[in-house]
Amino acid sequence: MNDRDSRNPEKIYAKVRADFLPDGRIVPLLFRVGDGEAVRIDRVLDVRQAASLKLGGQGTRYTCLAEDRRYYLFNDQGRWFVELLVT
Description:
Radius of gyration: 12 Å
Structural class: mainly beta
Distance between the termini: 33 Å
Number of strands: 8
Order of helices and strands: EEEEEEEE
Mean pLDDT: 90
């Protein structure tokens, strides 16, 4: 499977470990981009349907706090990708 989006090479899909709750919610626990280190998610701050304005695509957007940084973690039709938020 290709880790990059052919239409936008800056969008790199991530590996995600998550809990799937009985009520249907998905709670991401950690993610890894490419061959990088796994990033443990400390807290999910928000979950909503949204578009990625930076990388394109849309789906369920998880605003996550991990290692004192904020990330958008998108689940776009079963594939995950990450945006680092610059604050």
